[in-house]
Specification:
Layout: E1 4-6, H1 7-17, H2 23-33, E2 47-48, E3 54-57, H3 58-73, H4 80-89, E4 106-111, E5 120-125, E6 130-134, H5 136-157, E7 168-173, E8 178-182
Antiparallel strand pairs: 1-3, 2-3, 4-5, 5-6, 7-8
Helix pairs in contact: 1-2, 1-3
C-alpha cells in the first residue's frame, strides 16, 4: 500500500532527514518544485486532489531526501587529508581536475645549506607556488622517475623515439670467426 504525505508532512519528513534547514524552508521548496516554469534538479512527483495541496508518495520523498544529503556532501568543507587531496589536484579551481593541475612549470636550483651542511636541491613549482628541499639523491630519484614515466607515456601515445641500436665491440676478429659483445655503460 502506498503512503501519501501532504506538503506539510513531507516538509516535516525532510526537516528530520536532511539537517540544516527549517520546516518552513522545505514547505517553500516543495511548493516551488511544483512550478513548471522553474527547472528542477530532482523531479519529485506529486498528485493534486481537489481542495488539497500536493500529495507526495513517501518513497519518493525518502529518495529525494537521500538525493539532497548527497548533493549537500558536495558542499561540505573538507579537512585533513581529504582537503589536501582536493587542493593537490586543484579540484574546484581553474586549471585543476580529477587528473591533476595543468603543468605551468618549475625550476630547480642547487642551494647551500644554511647550517653549513651539504648543499641541497631546491625544487620550486610555479602554480600553485610550492618549494621543496631535496637531497641530491632524492633529486636524482625524482628525475629518473620523471624520465621513466615520460617515456612510458610516449610509448602509450605512439610517439616514442626509436630505441638506440645497441653498441657492440669486437672481441675477436680473424678469418674464421668474429666475436662481438654488447657494450654496457654505467649510468
Amino acid at each position: 500500500m502506498t503512503t501519501f504525505l501532504d506538503t506539510k508532512a513531507a516538509a516535516d519528513f525532510l526537516h528530520e532527514q536532511v539537517p540544516g534547514e527549517t520546516e518552513k524552508y522545505w514547505l517553500a521548496r516543495l511548493n516551488n518544485m511544483r512550478r513548471t516554469d522553474r527547472p528542477q534538479t530532482f523531479n519529485l512527483q506529486f498528485a493534486k486532489i481537489e481542495g488539497k495541496s500536493g500529495l507526495y508518495d513517501q518513497k519518493d520523498v525518502a529518495a529525494y531526501s537521500e538525493f539532497e544529503k548527497l548533493r549537500r556532501i558536495g558542499r561540505t568543507k573538507l579537512s585533513g587529508r581529504a582537503a589536501q587531496a582536493m587542493q593537490a589536484f586543484g579540484i574546484g579551481e581553474p586549471g585543476g581536475g580529477s587528473f591533476g593541475r595543468k603543468w605551468v612549470g618549475a625550476r630547480a636550483h642547487v642551494v647551500p645549506s644554511p647550517d653549513g651542511g651539504p648543499v641541497f636541491v631546491q625544487f620550486f613549482i610555479h602554480e600553485p607556488m610550492l618549494a621543496f628541499a631535496m637531497s641530491a639523491g632524492q633529486a636524482i630519484t625524482l628525475g629518473k622517475e620523471l624520465v621513466e614515466m615520460g617515456r612510458a607515456a610516449q610509448r602509450f601515445n605512439g610517439d616514442a623515439p626509436p630505441l638506440p641500436a645497441p653498441e657492440f665491440e669486437v672481441v675477436t676478429d680473424n678469418d674464421n670467426m668474429r666475436v662481438s659483445r654488447k657494450v654496457t655503460r654505467d649510468a
